[in-house]
Design goal:
Two copies of one chain form a homodimer. Chain A is α/β, with parallel strands linked by helices. Chain A has 13 helices and 16 strands. Chain A has three domains: 84 residues, Winged helix-like DNA-binding domain superfamily/Winged helix DNA-binding domain (Arc Repressor Mutant, subunit A, Orthogonal Bundle), CATH 1.10.10.10; 117 residues, Alpha-Beta Complex (Aspartate Aminotransferase, domain 1); 237 residues, 3-Layer(aba) Sandwich (Aspartate Aminotransferase, domain 2). Helices cover 37% and strands 13% of the residues of chain A. Chain A has an eight-stranded mixed beta sheet with strand order 4-11-10-9-8-5-6-7, sandwiched between helices. Chain A has a four-stranded antiparallel beta sheet with strand order 12-13-16-15, covered by helices on one side. In chain A, strands 1-2 form a two-stranded antiparallel sheet. Chains A and B meet through helix 4, helix 6, helix 7 and helix 10 of A and helix 4, helix 6, helix 7 and helix 11 of B.
Chain lengths: 472, 472
Amino acid sequence: MEDEWSRLGLDLHLRLSPAHGLRTGLEHAVRDAVRDGRLSPGTPLPSSRTLARDLGVARGTVTQAYDQLVAEGYLTSRPRSGIRVADQPAGPPAAETVPPPHAAPSPAAGTDLRPGLPDLSGFPRREWLAATRRVLQTTPGAAFGYGDSFGHTELRQVLAEYLGRARGVVTTPERVIVCAGYTHALRLVCQALRRRGATSVAFEDPFLPDYPALAEETGLRVSRIPVDSEGLVVDRLTGEAAVIVTPAHQFPLGVTLSPARRAQLLAWARRTGAFVLEDDYDGEFRYDRQPVGALQGLAPDRVVYAGTASKTIAPGLRTAWIVVPPGLVAPLRAAMRWDEGYVSVIDQLALAQLIRTGELDRHLRRCRARYRRRRDRLGDAVTRHLSHGSLSGIAAGLHAVLRFPGTSASEPLLLSHLEERGVTVDGVARFYGRPEDAPFGIVIGYATPPEHAYGNALDTLISALREREPAG
Amino acid sequence: MEDEWSRLGLDLHLRLSPAHGLRTGLEHAVRDAVRDGRLSPGTPLPSSRTLARDLGVARGTVTQAYDQLVAEGYLTSRPRSGIRVADQPAGPPAAETVPPPHAAPSPAAGTDLRPGLPDLSGFPRREWLAATRRVLQTTPGAAFGYGDSFGHTELRQVLAEYLGRARGVVTTPERVIVCAGYTHALRLVCQALRRRGATSVAFEDPFLPDYPALAEETGLRVSRIPVDSEGLVVDRLTGEAAVIVTPAHQFPLGVTLSPARRAQLLAWARRTGAFVLEDDYDGEFRYDRQPVGALQGLAPDRVVYAGTASKTIAPGLRTAWIVVPPGLVAPLRAAMRWDEGYVSVIDQLALAQLIRTGELDRHLRRCRARYRRRRDRLGDAVTRHLSHGSLSGIAAGLHAVLRFPGTSASEPLLLSHLEERGVTVDGVARFYGRPEDAPFGIVIGYATPPEHAYGNALDTLISALREREPAG
């Protein structure tokens, strides 16, 4: 198979690992070649038809691989010039809205549909216990002492491999740091930036308000950068030392950072020497195509990648991880001189065991199927029952945003009406730097209820919304 | 039994819980009466002979209870005035040195006798796994979400009860905070002090140098207060907002804060409005009599009590706890707004389970017996083989200090000689603010080696020391 790749017409030897499927293998091969410079910016790639014929694979396989790499910012696709390796690539944002609709349901009590939680009833109890048993049976006593504050080597190795495979992250284990949740990770990064002399950081607007406040607490000035339908409006960045973004699925709006903006963001970081903190809080959950690979893979020297077990397993584990550029390793070591590692070594090794044995993958497949069904039911209900409702941010993640375009809907009135009906959701406004300027919308965390309660929760929500559907 | 206590001649109704033994029950009863004011400062107590007769118990029982309460600072004992309730009590420091000695042993390789670790080979694997199983079988899914940053209610309740019972700590569960190790606890306390406007804190000299450095990192000025044979030299304190002390077993010298100094310290705190952080890092380990109760019990409004699972179970669990005065609850809430709780809820509940079922007590009894044997062997070897060696700090904890009084011993020379023989211990000097002014001594962490290796470790140490025993 390897030899076939040299027939790309590029005098290029792309290695295809037999462990991958055809499409994924092609993606990996091209991604690697772009990363290591064998495919330089501007290089034209063969048309999908040509390459498919050369490789003896279906044309759809090539098209899908190309699409994925365009979405990730490695390639560009322009009407007349075909597919090329990106330098500062441009492309349209992914359309992620579902049109409005009509119909009717029934109520329940204490329906929590706030975003930010997975279905905790799905905690993999049996698997976690088995992993813990294995750890306690096999780990040498010395491992229970004070360990490396960056985390246990075994977990860092497993994470480096997992993140490369599942999220396109490029790293060695030495640059993986185990943290006690995303807040801990963010605080450490802010402290490391301060040690390097940083004075300001930027956050998306909207975003979770606690995080900018935490950055301020560490002594940094915070600016807020608007988000539009392509994600962060990169040209509003100025001299900040870093920007915190949610490229795979903006929180809470749910847009994916467009290929053009990904490129523009990395160009900004390279030009100004700034860092990008990629908050990949729900990157494992994408429903209609393969996940958009991590931004970090395009610029491992400028991007801090942050992932978490809070959405894939549960926040109660208090486990997250960051992958840091070489330039931040020493400042993070210094910041963690006091901040010893905070995660129990037993939990670290149990998580490593869960990933290594494939249990986490199996768990994630179950979760993905469950959340996709929920999302589809939500989309269907909105279409059928709400004539003005428009759902966005649904391609990925654990929440969606519901708007009522062209109406005069009022968020406080709607939220208090829902509260009266026993339904708790978040309004969009609380995530904005200036809530009074926020557009109208509610954030629906469809993963939050336990599986058995989702049907009722959805019915209750929709029926309460219908009672107040705004005039068009 | 309750009624007998009213025959104290004090018109005092002391409640004796039937759960306690006679001596412990008497201690508890008197301690409680002093705390809640039923026994006011200066009140004379009946002689041990009288009370023993009144209660129908052995005189030794009463004597032991009184001794304990004198050591803890609740009572005073003066030659002519007998036993009274303390206000600013005075009393001699406990003698904790073992005289010098002679004889010979054999070497091993890679002998780590540094202090700060329990025997990790004794990690209660079976018990921890059983507790984890129980937690995963019984905990409702909702518990795996984001919990209270102060910790899970269940663990906080169990800790409040345990600390009251085992260490004489007076608290409600609301004032117990679960932390990810002592460093995390200390940082939080420093941050809370800063929020209250504090500018400086004091540490013992000697002490672990990382902790003063951490306090400085949070923006506090640090002063170092000398330690003598009675513990912290309290009258060297000035206007610090808080002082961090190790009253049960000073680190690393091993002295117990004397009753007089305990009283003096609390008087200083009350007079100046300062707080005392009681670092009770190895308070569970006392070998020759009941543990000296926590200072916190004497002044719950001024003392922050800090305990940890690092010595009782293992540092790898990353679990510690603080009990805070009411006045620090709000600043700690504020400090933890960003610092979400860092300890996995599964681990919190497993620890609660371990304590509730009595497994921790059984584990501690096994450890205490093991470490006491090791300490006795160390003391014996020093006595028999080292003519100038003098061991101190041996009444409690997991380490002892070896000095060579009246000799011209040089710490760097001795440490490098031991290193050549494959033995790692700490010198006392590194714990001093000005290492060059430190007295000579080495700190021997006798709990560190695995059980099967202790004999060889000890032989290697003693034989290396004999090679260099300084001229008298």
